[in-house]
Amino acid sequence: MLANNQSRGTVSFFLGFLLCYALVAAYLRSKCYRDPSSVFFRPEAARVLTYSAFRKAQARKFGDLAASHPSPKFSNSTNPELCIGIASVSRRGFSYLKETLGSILEGLDSLERQRIYLVVFLAHADQSQHEDFLQPWLLNMADGLPTYPDDPEIMNLVRQLEADGDYEAHARKQKIDYAVLLDECAKVNPEYTMTLEDDVIALDGWYHRALGALRTAVRKTEELGRDGFLYLRIFYDGRLLGWNSEEWPLYVESSTAIFLAQVVILAALRWRFAFVRKALTLPIFFVLCGVCTPMLIGLFFAAGRNCMQPKAPGVHLMRKYGCCAQGLVFPQRQVVDHLLPLYRDTQDNHAAVDTFLEDWANNHDGLRWAVTPVLIQHVGGKSSHGAGDQALGSLTDDMPFDYSFETNDPVRLAEEHRAWIAEMQESKSA
To answer: Which domain of life, per UniProt (predicted)?
Structure first.
């Protein structure tokens, strides 16, 4: 009879556990569908542009108005706090540039806009090949519209690379394009230079968040005893921050430690207290430790790292898994001392700018910070060099994307931005 009672108790316990397990799994299914490292990931729902669509609509409206009404521009009275450089290459009939520029400028107070120098480089030997060449909205929004240097050798090389069009040609030309951008920014001597790709959407209030993140990066760099950092990343691909295979020893150690700790604690409680020993029979003990705990650990990993262990808001070191080059902010000293000499070396063709820069940073121990949450979203689904082309520029599974960006609340962001503007105006008038 005692054995039967224990068996019924064990079965009841396990059935109760399965019910709770199913409820937890259902909750995680509804919560973790945006995490690409989760078994509950639903790309058709996670990739829906919700906040980005809202910002794109605002950006288009801003661009349409800018076509007939010049928007405020950089004030020449002082050096800019930030120079933004965007290189844009034709996507053969499709362009994101207007929405990108509109999202950067829409919502900026005149005091903010006067601190920003905006450079847009249509990166073609013949700029008329670009869809947005001489567009009124572009002329009215950009502070600088550079061209390639008036150097026959460079122009011949650019034309040759454009004609080749393969990966090596793209990697080599991209560095020339970035050199033009960075050189144009260097002319106005900003405190920081930001490089953006031409297919991103910035959130409302990106500017004050970037300044705050830069101040934090400077402070944290000093705390590490370093005299400077290479860049602040304002976008990264969340797909690379999952359960990375090279960290499997850590996962095994953590899981084993949890299992052993549970066994030791429960065994000690059974030994010390009679009422625990009565309730936690040996069959239940073995089912709990040998079946339930492994199932819970498995569910934890199945739910995905970004969902179960999301990065805390703030500025963090990101020496690994930092992809891609959609948005980076460099201290101007790094631009002058390192980046311009690197990108002016037109002989290198081993990697595109993002990989090239990471390789250089790894070899020179460059500090790389990233801000969480990200300040921009990558919305481009049509490549400028033949990879992943879509007829209408729609997103594909292989494109960098931050899934949490779409959960932004436009009302809350607008209120935060207005509060920061009011504080800035107060401090200026004080």
So the answer is: Eukaryota
